[in-house]
Amino acid sequence: MIRLAPEGWPFVIPALSLALLAGAGSLLIPSLGPTLVTILKGLAGLLGVLTLFILFFFRNPRRQRRDADGLVLAPGDGRITEITPVEEPSLFAKPATRISIFLSIFDVHIQRAPMTGRVALKSYKEGGFALAWKSKASEENEQATLGFTAGPHRIMVRQIAGMVARRIVTDPEKGELVPQGSRIGIIRFGSRVDLFLPQKWELTCRVGDRVRGGLTALARVPAPEDGEGS
Asked: Among 91, 161, 182, 210, which is most buried by a count of CB atoms within 10 Å?
């Protein structure tokens, strides 16, 4: 059975209700005439397909990786489009590495915590809706940011709206302890997720990789003796 994100129900219920009404009308009211009955059947079929797509889009699969100690997991599903050094003074004292993941409308759109940590930063910025796979989307588009601390380590996740996306939901509040792999939010209908890490952390991914949120390892957390915190 498909697990559905709560944000999907406001879309599923109207689409399914209209599909059922159109289908019932085509079967129960023959006096409408063959042309109108045919139209209602076609409409019921289209709305049924739309309902299935919405269910597919808002799916929320159960995921738990049990061997993820010392690993930073992908915050979302999609394809890595860019790995680049950046300045991100809102959380990092030194230059950071940004890993950008593009989520198509066919990917799971739930975002998950890359590692267990406490929310030290939560912010939201209004912006535009440029194509999510373009680099400028990281600076110009509507976005929400969560910064996590775990001992000496700091990482950050940024949810970025795309050309179609018009709603970013971010769950944790500042000060909350978030377990690795748990849901931290959702972006509706096409988007991008950026993961920020200290620049010297060892990466286990590269541009072009397909990743799955809460399952695919993107980097390794340095051992305490390495002295590579934030």
From this structure: 161
Q: CA–CA separation, 229 vs 154, rounded Å?
A: 7
Q: Taking a C-beta distance cutoff of 8 angstroms, is the pair 101, 211 a contact? A: yes
Is 62 contained in some domain? no
Identify the DSSP state of 18.
H
**Lowest mean pLDDT, pick from 7-16, 113-122, 173-182:** 7-16
Q: Does a structural domain hold residue 180?
A: yes
Statement to judge: residues 13 and 126 lie in one domain: no
Instruction: Work out how many domains the chain is built from and give that number.
Output: 2
Task: Supply the pTM of this predicted model.
Answer: 0.86
Kindly report the backbone phi and psi dihedral angles of residue 143, in degrees, each rounded to the nearest multiple of 5, phi listed first. -155, 155
**Does 191 qualify as catalytic in the annotation?**
yes
Tokens matching residue 155: 């990482």
User: Whole-number mean pLDDT of the chain?
Assistant: 87
Quickly list H helices, 58-175: 137-140
For the stretch 87-117, pLDDT in tens is 988 888 889 999 999 998 889 989 999 999 9
103 located within any domain: yes
Torsion angles phi and psi, residue 41, rounded to 5: -65, -45
Q: Are residues 102 and 190 in the same domain?
A: yes
In terms of residue numbers, what domain contains 159?
A: 71-226
pLDDT, one tens digit per residue, over 170-187 is 999 999 999 999 999 998
